[in-house]
## 1
Amino acid sequence: MKPRHDGAFPPWPAGRNLADIQWMAWMPGVLLAALALARPWLESHMARHMGLELPLLFMVGWLAARLAGPRLTRALDPWNAHGLSALVFGALAMAFWMVPAALDMAVLNPLMGTIKVGAWLLAGLLLGASWNRSGLVVQAFFLFNGCWMTIAVGLVYQQASSQLCSVYLPDEQWSAGAAMVFWAVAVFTLWLPGAVRASNLLGDGPARRG
Amino acid sequence: MRWRGTALCVGLMIVVALAAFSHVTRGFSAVTSDGVRRVDLEQSPRTLPSLPLVDQDGTVFSLADYGAHSSYTTIVSLVYTHCMTVCTTAASGQAFLQQEIKARGLGARLRLLTLSFDPVRDSPSALSRYADSLGADSALWRMATVVHRRDLAEMLAPFGIVLIPDGLGGYSHNAALFVIDEQGRLSRAYDVDRPDLALADYLHTRKAVR
């Protein structure tokens, strides 16, 4: 099978047939239940909360979207030209949960905690369903901005001299910031090679569909 | 059609996100819970609950005594005496204020209160030693803690102090210098390392009232 370089991100499981991954249909539910059980441990440290719980919730949503297949993508279509609505939602949700006061509220207030879980799952679900609908330029715009914002905020977290969150130790801010920088770099690094190939940016191959 | 739906969706999300950001940052004026609390106190001062406290001399009084109309403004900090970090900043801030109160002859209008949230170790005698070590003048500066451990949460609530046991017998906690005004309302909070600002604000407000 020829590898596809259509900007699919991450390269799996989009590169496979839906039928190949359908057996995993139970996974999002089980993962979500596991996350719910691990919540006290995850939320007892700032870095685990921001660097593990939030990205995992996103991934569960993303996986659910991939398993739901094109039906979900089609259902979103009337409000989601080029995946724009999904991308805007993802960017806003991500930015919102980088505000230390919001993170505090998510721990101290059960309603906010639930909204947080819902927002990250939905962001994963929407983006998982519509990432490949958006062209390379749109993807690049959101990815550059998202990664840049995350790195900038991560660096601020690392350098902050005052206590940012009431519920987390100031010592934990460095690692929480480092986790943010890590994810931004990781996501960008995963996305870049496919994007370069798809756009024939380096001019060493026939341009493929972007 | 698809574009109209998407534009509507994106517009709606941006409006909701702005409302959410504005709410959690109190109109884009604070990003940390401490900052949010500062704005909240200024906009809607809080009343103090009636709960029994004991001071360094063993005298029992009620926190609500400070919540009544009086000729005094009280600057409060919340600490535990074994603290080696932020509480020492709070203590030196109050020591600075005591010096200023004496130097400016404000003893009949401005007083200091240090509340300990470690009633087990901070007995009246421990508080008395602590007061001595700081050179606290008992006529200006009172140290106290709750009589009953069960009242701790109620004492901390209006101040928005969150305690996190650090596993070494200490706590990590947020801190601030709080102001109880002459109406007995908890109406201001300042960064723990800015007693100068608390004093300047007090002097300025007094001048304005006169």
## 2
Amino acid sequence: MELLIFYPLAGLCVLFALGVVVSNSPINSAISLIGMMLGLSGIFVLLQAHFIAVLQIIIYAGAIMVLFMFVIMLLNLKGKGEDEKWQSRDKNILLNVLGGLLATGVLYKIIDIINAGDFNSPAMPPESFGTVREVGTILFTEFVLPFEVASILLLVAMIGAVVLAKSKVD
Amino acid sequence: MDFGMVPLTHYLFLSATLFVIGVTGVLIQRNVIVVFMSIEIMLNAVNISLVAFDRYMNLHDGQVFSFMVMCVAAAEVSVGLAIIISLFRNKPTTNLDEFNIMKS
């Protein structure tokens, strides 16, 4: 039953992700990325992580993508057509080496995953699994220091963004 | 006990696929903003793995980790887009290959 929901969602996510990478204009990429975020939030719901699913929509599809759209509109970017990608990169040795390393690493890991034991039959989680209460409890007891550090990180990022966008680069 | 659930390997495959798509985007694209979006795809792919392991081990730690990943992604996007805007002010292009002012 869950598989019937999982496969369309996963296919949609992969298609939208490919759309981000191969499309020519940044605005199409951004719209595909929003589609991917929504699909991923469906997958999180399937994994019973309700809190993360809602956060995915609010933070990614809401805040981050609006920021992307805003910058794309602000810079008035249009697709440049063919000269933006796929050219003169195939002779780049570093790029080829990195791509090869990535392919071998991922293949190795996939073989690892196939050979790993039986994770396929987990215990049924309790009813309250993944709710805001559960995640919030663990966030404010066990992970309270990382939580505070994250708030400082966001503050620093905000100040940094203001300073960077204000001053001229020279 | 089988509840007709999706096996964990499916989630891991989806995660690996999305991660590879993200890396491909970083490697082949030249538009700064699309490269940024590809980085977002990679971060999301890792989130799938974290939450899936969480579900299959009956823990909540992975969800907290993915919460932290989202925080870092938000911080990174805000600073990165500010950098892009100030670069664009200096030189009106978003092609990565033209940003070589540090080279000379």
